Amino acid sequence: MVRPKRSSPTLEKALRRVAGMRWISPTLDFGRGLNLTEYDSRIQTLQTELSNYNNLLSSLDEMAIRIAEIEEDLSTYSEKMLMSVGSNYGKDSAEYAQAGGKRRKSSSRRSQTAPSPAEIMVTTPLNGANNNGKHNPVVLP
């Protein structure tokens, strides 16, 4: 993300004003430090600081781009390292997990919505004549 460079409306206004005041008199001086020399000095100070600020932003932008490139390189290298550990030790190994990989489950996964065998209920008639044809559930182990 490139940072926008800063401009200064105050600086632009001061440059227009100093140009107009020079037209009145190139040596305009009102006393008490209010003169064109001091005005030029203050304008120059802001121009210098603004230029330094914008140059620093450009440097920061370059550094941010470089950091992003290095991060991408490191991410790729890290993935290759993990895949190498997986190739050498297996993806089910403790070494793979130690290196940051996730071990595969060796047993097949059960569906979380399917009932376990203990939960399966079978209905059987208990003394059909005594239950009036009703069935009672029986839980199998």
List the helices and strands and how they pair.
Layout: H1 9-24, H2 36-89, H3 94-98, E1 121-125, E2 135-139
Antiparallel strand pairs: 1-2
Helix pairs in contact: 1-2
Keywords: Coiled coil
Task: Describe it.
Keywords: Coiled coil. This protein is mainly alpha-helical. The protein has a two-stranded antiparallel ribbon. The two termini are about 65 Å apart. Helix content is about 55%, strand content about 5%. The protein has helices at about 10-25, 35-90, 95-100; strands spanning about 120-125, 135-140. It contains 3 helices and 2 strands. It is rod-shaped.
Which class of secondary structure composition applies to the elements? Answer: mainly alpha
The beta-strand count equals 2
| Structural Rg | 40 Å
Poorly predicted sequence stretches spanning 5 or more consecutive residues:
none
Number of helices: 3
Shape: rod-shaped
Provide the spatial order of strands within the biggest beta sheet.
1-2
